[in-house]
Design goal:
2 domains; disordered N terminus
């Protein structure tokens, strides 16, 4: 009887697994916007209000030029608590946030990471020379445009600390870009934000459910047959 009960008790769990496989849902983000962008791109800029699009492109071009010269760095420019999503308490603590964001990204990226906030600059996985150079970078202002400009100075300063002089790139003219946008302009990504995988078709879902249901029925029949044989073999039953 125990074997039958165990088989029956497993049916709800198996059914739940069928539903999860056949009707997947998009995983919800962890609530930290930068950790959603930076696995696939190199810059994160303020979302609301955004920086001027041409300045976003200037920062992206600089980081791209840096990468091509072997100095790989990712940078998050945080303009307000809104840019921190579920961890607004870290606003104003750039070094603490650098450690937090680095931990969030560690499975996809464990290299240099710079954080720019109105209160200062934080860094992770940089050398002592780079850190000293970053301490000399002043925050030009607190609006998104000024913070992005500060981010460009921070990238130049940290690269120069290890002997790499980045080229002076011509600024992107405002007339060549669209008005400010709420998503970063980036070289490396097909989309600025993570794109959920396509949902399986209705036919695919039905086939998966039917296959798993058949497997469950076969397993349940085997359990019942085993119990029936045990029942016949035990004295005093029947």
């Amino acid at each position: 009887m125990y074997g039958l009960r165990r088989g029956i008790a497993g049916l709800p769990l198996a059914a739940a697994l069928c539903a999860v496989i056949a009707f997947p849902t998009v995983a919800r983000a962890d609530g930290d916007p930068a950790s959603d962008y930076l696995p696939t791109v190199d810059i994160f800029v303020p979302l609301e209000p955004p920086a001027a699009r041409n300045l976003q492109m200037d920062l992206d071009n600089l980081v791209f030029a840096s990468r091509r010269r072997g100095y790989v760095v990712k940078i998050a420019v945080i303009g307000s608590r809104t840019d921190l999503g579920a961890v607004p308490q870290l606003f104003g603590r750039p070094q603490t946030y650098a450690k937090f964001l680095g931990n969030e990204l560690r499975l996809s990226y464990d290299g240099r990471l710079l954080i720019v906030m109105p209160q200062g600059i934080g860094a992770r996985n940089v050398s002592a020379r780079e850190l000293r150079a970053l301490r000399g970078v002043t925050i030009a202002g607190t609006d998104p445009d000024d913070l992005v400009r500060t981010g460009m100075r921070a990238v130049r300063a940290s690269a120069a600390a290890v002997g790499l002089q980045l080229p002076v790139l011509p600024p992107t003219p405002r007339s060549a870009v669209t008005p400010p946008a709420t998503t970063p302009t980036v070289h490396a990504a097909a989309a600025a934000a993570p794109v959920p995988p396509p949902a399986p078709s209705k036919t695919t879902r039905l086939l998966v459910v039917a296959g798993l249901a058949g497997a469950i029925l076969i397993a349940s029949a085997g359990t019942f047959a085993w119990w029936w044989r045990q029942r016949d073999a035990e004295p005093g039953l029947g």
